Amino acid sequence: MQYIRLGNSGLEVSRLCLGTMNMGTPDWKPWIFDEKQSEPIVRHALENGVNFIDLADFYSAGVGEEVVGRIVKRLARREDLVITTKVGYGTRSGINASGHSRKHIMDSIDASLTRLGMDYVDLYMLHFFDVNTPVEETMGALNDIVKAGKARYIGVSTMLTGQLAKILLCCERNGWVKPINMQLQLNVAYREEEREMIPFCRDQGLGVSVFSPLARGLLTGDVQSTRNQTDFFTQQMYADEASFEIARSVQRVARARGVSNAQVAQAWVLQHGGVDCMLVGADTTAQFDSALAALDTRLDAEELQELERNYTPCDLINDYTAGKRILRTARPGIERFLLREAVA
């Protein structure tokens, strides 16, 4: 395993972070694993050096935190782990049951700690940017949570660069703790965060952790998976021809190397100069092993050109642009890969 300090903090985390959205209860979504199914995956990740685990109160409406909390209590010492959970979407319906108001944040941290069976989380993250709550209210609440010892650090996820700048300015003005990490979506089929967010995070000293390195399964070649057949977000995000062409390019490079599509797609993310950590939401230990292999997979210039040639700009993927993607057109391919495909 490789480790890195997260942003300008002293916190050391594994470059592979175990994603847990698929752990909790299938009553929430049909592709979710229950506790018995989840434990071997968590154990395998820990045995291979992972110390960074990502959760959210939203996952399985809170059951995800309960399940993972019980599993890690059986398998590891709390002080050896870096536990992250997120707040925003909530676990139930109702007024004040979501968003980033002081009320909801304070209620949510206590509820998350109870479900996890822990006294603190290492990293408490905003799941998105709440445009309906004053940023001073949100960041003041997070600062108080850190001062109370309920979280060691704070982080953010999935927002516009200007919104992150607003958060940092607010913290600077008030002398409050600042986020140490930005969690964003990045993969070879979605690269819009390269334009502003990643350079801004580098400039401001935030770590960058990446989710959806496989474009919600598109880049594995398994478009018929249970998740892809039941998760409408996949269709909203990756249903254009450019995304399909990128998936074909991943397959070409994988075939030339004799490795899995997933390993190539994950290697592209891990080799990216703006990425510190990559979330791995594995359904099996073998799927986790492809991410381990990707840590040591170096793509050459021709492979990178093949992987990247189909990419064209698109709408940002966030809560405000769902269903508004631009249709994209691919660029010409490299003869080396096209000839190999024709022979196959």
Automatic annotation (TrEMBL):
Its EC number is 1.1.1.-. Transmembrane segments: none annotated. One of its GO terms (molecular function) is oxidoreductase activity. Keywords: Oxidoreductase. InterPro entries: AKR, AKR_Detox_Biosynth, NAD(P)_OxRdtase_dom_sf, NADP_OxRdtase_dom. Residues 15-308 form the NADP-dependent oxidoreductase domain. Pfam families: Aldo_ket_red. SUPFAM superfamilies: NAD(P)-linked oxidoreductase (SSF51430). It is an enzyme of class 1 (oxidoreductase). PANTHER family: NAD(P)-LINKED OXIDOREDUCTASE SUPERFAMILY PROTEIN, NADH-SPECIFIC METHYLGLYOXAL REDUCTASE-RELATED. This is Aldo/keto reductase. It comes from Pseudomonas ulcerans.
